[in-house]
Amino acid sequence: MVMAKQYYVYIMTNKSKTLYTGVTDNLERRVYEHKKKLLGGFTKRYNITKLVYYEVTNDIHVAIGREKQIKGWLRRKKVALIGTVNPQWLDLSEGWFRDDLHDSKQNVEIKVLSNNLKMEKVLLGWSGGKDSAMALYEAQRSQKYEIVSLLTTITEDYDRVSMHGVRRTLVEQQAQSLGLPLEEVFISKSCSDEEYESKMRQTLTVFKENGVSSVIFGDIFLEGVRRYREENLAKIGMKGIFPIWGRDTAELARSFIALSFEAITTCVDSKVLDKKFIGRTLDEEFLSELPPAVDPAGENGEFHSFVFDGPIFREQIACTVGEVVLRDSFYFCDLLPKERVR
Fold first, then answer.
1. Looking at the domain that runs over 119-337, which CATH code has it been given?
2. Architecture of domain 7-116 in CATH?
3. What angle do CA 248, 262, 174 make, to 5 degrees?
4. pLDDT tens digits along 250-297
């Protein structure tokens, strides 16, 4: 069997945290060359020898495009990307070169296998919005979980994410950009609790039989919602994980922005927010205009969003704001897919 060739996009740094982004078809060799100053130029001049991030693909064109993309980012976005998998900025190549280059590759493979065996297999509840994005960010940062798939509910009559009103095709683009599978559970527009629980139980049971033990959610402080999730998971021997539970919502919203996530409001409760808040980018100006009674993260359902870029995404989800409609006291903004930004 012929193994597909692999290409790596990587980030290295030095004691001053100067960053260098590169691409290679042999990561171990390239890191060795940087460490031993065998390559001239920027990394040799600034003593850049520490590997802090890398990702892998089988497509050379994807690798080259990704390298250019990361190089074009602001520093804070590169820092956030590193933080998704290596928050302490450890040298990921530590121990690779004990004997020689050939042996080091074997050591790396053993180390990766060992780490994967320790990680808990989980699903991640995915709405496409800010809270599920932050939950994914924190889950990846912890390096405790192997995220087997994203899990989302689609209202079949509308072909849109339930409550958020986002087109299914956009959520599928999110999953592709995240490099994760997407499990879609289809429900009717008049879905009862019984229908929802039955369909979710059928889906989760299949994953449980394949070694998935838990589901990650982006809930922050609603005790009733958490209890409902935990009780239903317990019925099939699974548990819930809540990585952003208890966070101050104002701090969480500002962290979302500081990490270079980008999102648009897709659903707004007209009983608490004016129409001017629909179709808006989530930024400091948006937060500053929220009425005092509205939670900064919209945790009480005041607003929902669609995340189209951020440190966990490999490429931006291109979309444009379409028609705004009022339905059952909620403003919905139709996001229209565009050709992808490379």
1. 3.40.50.620
2. 3-Layer(aba) Sandwich (3.40)
3. 110
4. 999 999 998 889 999 999 999 999 999 999 999 999 999 999 999 999
